[in-house]
Amino acid sequence: MDLPSIRSAYKRYALTYDAFFGPIFAGGRRMAVQLANTAANQRILEVGVGTGLSLPDYREDARVVGIDVSPDMLKIARERARGLPQVEALLEMDAEQLAFPDNSFDSVVAMYVASVVPHPERLLAEMQRVCIPGGDVLVINHFASNHPVVRRMERGLRPLSKILGFRTDMELDSLPRLPGLERIDVRNANLFGYWKLVHYRHDEELPDGPLTGEALAG
């Protein structure tokens, strides 16, 4: 995966995304919002906000910042956000290089993004960095099936990843184990548990200096 192919894929998807993926992903979106938005006046970052389907689900007293790399998806999200008091900003931004200071958000959520970005370890490290200690980091994504037939199909589709806009055979274990980011739960989300929600807690301050490659690898 690379940014040009991601932008190209989601330019194609933009006008039909809501109709096709909206109903399929609805349950997972609601689950993620409920876990991310648990109290009044929270500031929440949604990484890969897409067309903004989840924005109306946040509490009206929240302050939600959404980012996405696709300007075509963001255009639709901005139309959807009109009149939603909980939306603070919708910004074009690379999920692997977030332009926010450390500890900027009470919760950070990425819905259906981990298999899209080129480097999932950088995504998770950036989500941790901008989340306050004690805050929640949530990832919903499709991960490779344990069913042998489905698994072979997913692997067979991998050469088409750049066209599809996501990796079809991402393993759950490929999400890195980062210092100070505790994985507290993995639960099924959406149809037949084909997608999963991974719930992390940012439980301590980050060490001084950048994370090393060894730390990112877990």
Number of helices: 7
Task: Name the shape in a single word.
Answer: globular
Written as H for each helix and E for each strand, in order along the chain, the element string is HHEEHEEHEHHEEH
What portion of residues is helical? Answer: 25-40%
Please state the structural category.
alpha/beta
Radius of gyration: 16 Å
- Taking all residues together, what is the mean pLDDT? 80
Q: Specify the biggest β-sheet.
A: 7 strands, mixed
| Distance between the amino and carboxyl termini | 22 Å
**What ranges have pLDDT less than 50 throughout 5 or more consecutive residues?**
159-165, 209-218
**How many strand segments?**
7
Question: Strand percentage, roughly?
Answer: 15-25%
Task: Based on the model shown, name its key terms.
seven-stranded mixed β-sheet, alpha/beta, disordered C terminus, 218 residues, 24% strand, 33% helix
Walk me through what this model shows.
By secondary structure, the protein is α/β, with parallel strands linked by helices. Strands 3-2-1-4-5-7-6 form a seven-stranded mixed β-sheet. The chain is globular, with a radius of gyration of 16 Å. The longest helix is centred in the first third of the chain and has 20 residues. α3 links the parallel β2 and β3. The C terminus is likely disordered. The protein is 33% helix and 24% strand.
